[in-house]
## 1
Amino acid sequence: MIKVGVTAFQGDVEEHIISVEKAMKEMGMEGRAVAIREKMVDIDALIIPGGESTTISSLMIKTGIFDEIKKVADDIPIMGTC
């Protein structure tokens, strides 16, 4: 099963998860919220929902998610929305 992480700091987190599940259910995809860096393991793709970018980037740095995203950036697809 393909696992799509959705950063869960601010923005349309639940809506993105629902969209992924609806659109990709037949293809065996699932969406999960990612708000702590331990949840970054075992994801095959990542969605970063838009919102207040200053707040989101601050929270991503504070929680260590930003460093984890940099580690996997060359290995998995990452999509940001506005």
Note: Strands lie at 2-7, 29-34, 45-48, 78-80.
## 2
Amino acid sequence: MTIKGIRFGAICVDRTEERKWSFRSKGSFDVNSFARQHFEGGGHFNASGGRSSKGLEQTILDFKAILPAYQLQLQ
């Protein structure tokens, strides 16, 4: 991640059978734990992935609902 001030990024790809997530972080935010806890995923501390079997719209709503719990960690 090379955008100044950005510590966490996520991309969601809508596949026919599921939604695939890619998470990246810079610094001390553990996207491996984030993916494991919320999106049946995992990987590395600063790079991980996950998935959701819910529809795209619900998956995005769920993601947005989770973010406030991490606000302090992402500042």
Note: The chain is about 25% helix and 30% strand.
## 3
Amino acid sequence: MIKIGVDGRLLQGKLTGVGKYVLNLLNYICDNTESIIFSIYTNKPLECSLRADKITVYQDNARMGKIKPMVWSKLLSFRLINQDKPDIFFAGDAFVPLFIKAQKIVSVVHDLNAIIAPETMSRLRLVTDKLFFEKDIKKASVIITNSYGTADKLKQYHHIDTTLVVHPIMDKPYKVIEDGLVQEKLKSLNINYPYLLTVSTQEPRKNMDKTIKAFINLKVREQLKPYKLLLVGSKGWKAEHIQSMIQSYPGEVMSLGYVSDELMPYLYNGAKLFVFPSSYEGFGMPAREAMLCGTNVVVTDIPELREATFEKGAYINPENSKEFEDCIVHVIESGNIINQNTLNNTDQLSLLIGTLESLG
């Protein structure tokens, strides 16, 4: 039996995209092999559902729970890890705790934000990246990236090769749902109008302001007369401008904030169009979720989002407002129906378990 230790910091609280990536990867491994078990180390309680038969959680004492998770993980988690003695340590976002004795490390790289979009990061995270990111990745026996685009940028900026590309494993509810069930769920949410949808944290690189501007321009020209724009996602860095724009268009632009995972598939299914003009993504999970729910997408023309949308989206330069607006209208009017049978993964997930077993 191979024991893999996991940084539980990523599984604390409401899961981010990185947290969902790690959780779904653990579940996939648990479902597909009997030779691997997991130990998760954390300084705070975990709210997510875990496979109790194959996953053991080790939580540090209450005093440690007051320490920032990143600080605890990097400087203090080694005590739990070394006491448990895992065969392999799984660094779910590339960072490896100091002083651990595990000789075999699997590292996951999700993006190169510290280089490409540093303005989106907290000061602590940016400093941590600058100090440890490259050093920690070079400790790894196996390096996983979430996209071929991330693999290319890891090679470009750090001259480090990727072992495996493993796309995010999507939650099973992200699928086409019968329209009657969708409308019933939307009605319970008081959504009884056609809408465009965007899902992202409110921060500069997501270009939510450009989405709002494009939508309002089209409304003024009466090209989207019956539609509203629904925004899902929490406030991020420098969100004041976005908040001001939302407040300027009450009844037209609706900010829903955080929406539960249970409701998101219905929102995707019910949307006439999903819009995601982010300037940079390591993958772009919301765009893939929308595609799997049968909703057409308009996204930025970058390699990572082409990959996330199976090369079957509509691609734009968000800096070109006319192109952006014209594309929205064209996709809505085209009435294109996505053939789910053509949405085939191109990653190397099938090689993952064998790779881990060879390390153990």
Note: The chain has a mean pLDDT of 95.
## 4
Amino acid sequence: MIWAGPRVSEAISLAWEDVVDLDKGIVRFQRSQVRGHYKVTKTRRSAREVKLLKPAREALQAQAKLTRDLKPVVVEVTERDNKTKRMRPLRFVFHNSSTHAAHTSSDMLLKGFWRPHLKAAGVRFRGPNNCRHTFASQLLTTGAVPLEWIADQMGHTSTDMIRKHYGKWINDDGPDMVGILEHALKL
């Protein structure tokens, strides 16, 4: 998640049917799982196709060996009108490593995977959505991509959310702005 920026609810509902091109790392985030229920994304803008950065692409390719060939699970997905429900056969990308079942909620992911792995790694607790925040902050700090691209990649309707929630500048990670200005101004 740290190299892709999805919401936790989107990551746990990602299915192999959403992987457009595994080699190129193109995935479609089109549903989320909230309180044990699957629903299409809250807004049309949240439903998006993204091209993964190399570390995320490689992790997805490794995960394919573990879960891509599992049998689909038929789940009920609520449409955006909050009334229409459709049954969808899905092969989920991420599974509980103990039970081999798809994660049934973000709480179960937190208790069964996230906390134990942070503890084993000696990392103080932080919520899994920190991965999303870190992804956005790192993209912003590089200055390499426009705000609009970041908003689109993360499923936001505008750049305002990016500025408001993720706009922390990380000096040590950023480019040499003085050097860039001196070069641009021919100083």
Note: The beta strands are 19-21, 26-29, 31-34, 37-40, 48-51, 73-78, 85-90.
